[in-house]
Amino acid sequence: MRFNRMLLSATLVVVALVIQVSVLARLHLPGAVPDLVLLTVLALAMVYGHVSGALIGFAAGLLADLAPPADHAAGRYALVLCVIGYLAGLVKPETGQLKSATGPMAVVVAAAIGSTLLYAGVGALVGDTAARHVGLNSLLLTAAVYDLLLAPFVVPALMALARRADNDPLAEAGSSKAADVSAGWLSSGTGLRIGGQRGGLRVKAAKARVARAGRIKGVKRL
């Protein structure tokens, strides 16, 4: 991953995690908590592709595992978001532009349901049965509804920001300026123009000598 991608991804993931822990988790909504970190990973994965999506998902999940109040084994949510980020990156449009909102919304619903099922499945493997007591069906429904309601305000904005940062117009302006400077240096500082001017002077001097000789010969004939 390029440096601007890593910097933007780290900033967005940290901001999303802080908002999720300090604001969304304290709303005490019934069922699941709106997963802003998941939506951030989805948006970045659908712009950067499956490899970057997996890396961003793993880092975001690990950060969420370690952030207080953490009540589960570290690495559990990292595995979930790594898989989700990889799969979301596979649906990245070839042109980079989305033709409609249907595709991203379907990805959000599938990711919300898939991440909840995968998280509960990994928890069952390590002996965590909290999902059974809360109600898995309730968690699936509320996770899909909350993330779907939050997605139109988060996913398009983050995807547009990621595309803009990835294009890096400042770098393009700097490279074009450097190209102009190098072109000017080649045309004026390497002696190519001087050589061309010297060549032109030689041609003009030769023509002048030929014309002078013709006039002298003409005088002799007279």
From TrEMBL:
Membrane topology summary: Multi-pass membrane protein
- Organism domain of life: Bacteria
Subcellular location per UniProt equals: Cell membrane
Return the Pfam families for the record.
MreD
Major subcellular location class: membrane
InterPro entries, per database record: Cell_shape_determining_MreD
Q: Where do the TM regions start and end? A: 36-62, 74-91, 103-127, 139-162
What are the UniProt keywords, alphabetically? Cell membrane, Cell shape, Membrane, Transmembrane, Transmembrane helix
Q: Does the keyword Metal-binding apply?
A: no
User: Which family does the entry's similarity section mention?
Assistant: Belongs to the MreD family.
Q: What is this protein called?
A: Rod shape-determining protein MreD
Q: Which organism is it from?
A: Streptomyces siamensis
Q: What is the lineage of its organism?
A: Bacteria, Bacillati, Actinomycetota, Actinomycetes, Kitasatosporales
